[in-house]
Amino acid sequence: MPVTPPVPTSPGVPAGFKMDDGYQALITLAVSTTISLWPLTVQPPSLDGGEAIPTTTMLNTKLKTFSPQALITMLASPVQCGYDPRLFNQVLASSIINKPTTITITFMEGSTLAYYGWLQKVDFGPLAIGAFPSCTATLFPSNQDLAGFEASYVFTLGPGTFNR
After folding, report:
1. What residues have CB less than 8 Å from 142, skipping those under 6 apart?
2. CA distance readout (Å), 42 to 30, 106, 109, 110, 124
3. Do the beta carbons of residue 105 and residue 156 sit within 8 Å?
4. Contact partners, residue 136, CB within 8 Å, separation at least 6
5. What domains are defined for the chain?
6. pLDDT in tens, the chain (164 residues)
7. What is the distance between the alpha carbons of residues 68 and 15, in angstroms, rounded to a whole number?
8. With CB atoms 3.0 to 4.6 Å apart as the test, which of 10, 66, 135, 137 could cross-link to 52 if both were Cys?
9. CA separation (Å) from 78 to 39, 58, 87?
10. What is the pTM of this model?
């Protein structure tokens, strides 16, 4: 069989809004919109195509071959936050941990990324003299709606995207 060699592609100019500063990003949990967390760093969920699928056979003569997986995984988001000690009651008494909800990340220019998931854990940092008390809240995407059907994220372009 004839082999089709790859054709080089010229680079293009990136489209869209280049963020110059990570300030400001906010998180909202629909199950508790006033949870006592003050975001310090917000990491949106990563998108992962998974490990390559080996497709090498005994007919290969020079190179091992691979194919991509068909599905994408959204990975957990760690969010470092300041907190109020009442967070213990908010999380435990209200059973917020592991409660399916809508998670929304609001970016600096007003765009939003909304997805289904839950607050997986809250990891409290040490309390020390002269240090800002913080915790890491881990938001885990479920990729399914509250009825259990597969549901992707919804990205909504913000009004400030083209104003900068």
Report:
1. 100, 116, 117, 118
2. 17, 10, 15, 15, 16
3. no
4. 78, 79, 80, 81, 122, 123, 125
5. 26-156 (2.40.30)
6. 678 999 999 999 998 878 888 999 999 999 999 999 999 999 999 999 999 999 999 999 999 999 999 999 999 999 999 999 999 998 888 789 999 999 999 999 899 999 999 999 999 999 999 999 999 999 999 999 999 999 999 999 988 655 44
7. 25
8. 66
9. 11, 44, 17
10. 0.89
Token pair, residue 153, equals 């994220």
Return the SS3 of 97: strand
The residue length of the chain stands at 164
Tokens for 142, please give them. 């479920």
Answer whether 74's CB lies under 8 Å from 47's CB.
Answer: yes
Cα 154 → chain centroid: 12
Tokens of 38: 């003050």
User: How far, in Å, are 14, 42, 67 from residue 79 at the CA level?
Assistant: 28, 5, 33
Q: Which two tokens stand for residue 103?
A: 């998670």
